[in-house]
Amino acid sequence: MTINLGDYYGENPACRKTNASFVISGDNLEPVIITECTNLAPTNSFAKGDKFTTKNGRILERPSGLWSFGTEIILQSKSTQEHVLRLLSKIEPQKTFFEKYLRDSNYRVAVAIWWEATDEHGGFTLASEVLKKLSSICNDIDFFFVG
Questions:
Q1: Can you give the pLDDT at residue 1?
Q2: Is the pLDDT of residue 87 over 50?
Q3: Domain ranges of the chain
Q4: What is the pTM of this model?
Q5: Are strands 140-146 and 108-117 parallel, antiparallel or unpaired?
Q6: Whole-number mean pLDDT of the chain?
Q7: Residues 89-110: pLDDT tens digits?
Q8: Rounded distance, CA 17 to CA 122, Å?
Q9: What DSSP string describes the chain?
């Protein structure tokens, strides 16, 4: 019996939407420095104390800083593995820079994987080697499943 690995890692008909994001957060985070040092334009960033307007019009301050780079804008695939590989292709070359955040307990370094089902159930598969690489760039991996 031959197994077609594309069936596990390829486009997923049970998936409505998927993406992967690399996220650093912390009270002392200076997102502008991350952007300047990595030449990566974040998909979201703000510093602690930055003001924002809520959906109901209230003006609040950000409780901590955040810098994130996600694949939702740069890749339209319904393959979670493809999103993770694209994320790795952008973050791994900057791994030396990000290591100082990984080692500092004042920062949270995570990868967030979003997977939205077309129906009420489903899931995805990541190759163990890909998961190993993903684990090397963060302290936590967050999984979000929406049905």
A1: 47
A2: yes
A3: 12-51+59-146
A4: 0.90
A5: parallel
A6: 93
A7: 999 999 999 999 999 999 999 9
A8: 12
A9: ----THHHHS--TTEEEEEEEEEEEETT--HHHHHHHH----SEEE-TT-EEE-TTS-EEE-SSEEEEEESTTT---S-HHHHHHHHHHHHGGGHHHHHHHHH-TTSEEEEEEEEEESSS-------HHHHHHHHTT-SEEEEEEE-
